[in-house]
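[Discussion] Sanity-checking designs against the backbone

I'm trying to build intuition for which residues belong where. Below is a structure token string of 250 positions. I'd appreciate it if someone posts a full sequence so I can compare it with mine line by line.
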């Protein structure tokens, strides 16, 4: 960061300092949040939870509501740090959450992503296809795979793969963008034009917008789905009051 940028950043942190929120990643306490996201018509019309323009960014480390909710759930609700004897799979890992998980020294903490040209991946992230996971059955205690399934035409195949590699009694956290006012998932794989996808699904590389029937798909591969809303409890971490955690047990 240049000196001028650095000074500007420090002033910004003084201006927004306060006691309303605290970022669990960088511990910065603020009175408000940075506006992030874009108001695409489809996100507004379908009331996609966590989509569109909203006050959700940490002024200091740029963490967003979604990632702070995952932190709250994994560390505060599941109290994951209390049991190091577990194997965890993190697909398309959120960088800040991944860093904290990695520091725990679990029995195994494996990160994977489908490598795509033009993107940069951290050293600890392996090239991995969620449709064909190279792990035995019943291997992991926990899988975390967020905002991935909406990119994959064969989403139930990916769900089944995650289910397969989980131990009985293990669980997966599988967040996706969900439309609040739509019952049935809207998908169309014939559309490949990025602009058209953005218009219909809210992002250039999404193939669908999930409706409330998302849980039916998860259940179809065997998961017992529990929707948990912990937002009220972790208001301090500035999470989205509307976002439920999809906690999927095997
Ligand atoms: Zn932060």
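Best answer:
Here's mine. Compare freely.
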């Amino acid at each position: 960061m240049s000196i001028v940028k650095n000074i500007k950043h420090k002033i910004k942190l003084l201006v927004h300092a306060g006691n309303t929120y605290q970022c669990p990643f960088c511990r910065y306490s603020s009175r408000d949040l940075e506006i992030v996201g874009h108001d695409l018509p489809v996100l507004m019309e379908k009331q996609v939870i966590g989509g569109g323009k909203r006050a959700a960014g940490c002024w200091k480390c740029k963490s967003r509501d979604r990632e702070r909710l995952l932190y709250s759930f994994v560390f505060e609700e599941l109290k994951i740090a209390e049991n190091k004897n577990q194997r965890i799979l993190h697909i398309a890992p959120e960088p800040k959450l991944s860093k904290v998980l990695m520091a725990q020294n679990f029995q195994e903490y494996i990160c994977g992503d489908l490598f795509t040209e033009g993107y940069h991946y951290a050293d600890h992230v392996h090239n991995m296809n969620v449709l064909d996971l190279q792990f035995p059955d019943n291997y992991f205690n926990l899988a975390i795979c967020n905002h991935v399934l909406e990119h994959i035409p064969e989403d139930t195949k990916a769900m089944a793969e995650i289910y397969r590699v989980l131990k009985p009694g293990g669980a997966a956290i599988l967040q996706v963008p969900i439309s609040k006012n739509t019952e049935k998932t809207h998908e169309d794989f014939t559309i490949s034009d990025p602009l058209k996808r953005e218009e219909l699904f809210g992002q250039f590389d999404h193939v669908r917008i999930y409706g409330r029937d998302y849980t039916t798909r998860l259940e179809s591969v065997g998961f017992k789905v529990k929707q948990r809303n912990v937002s009220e409890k972790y208001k301090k971490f500035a999470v989205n009051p509307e976002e439920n955690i999809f906690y999927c047990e095997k």
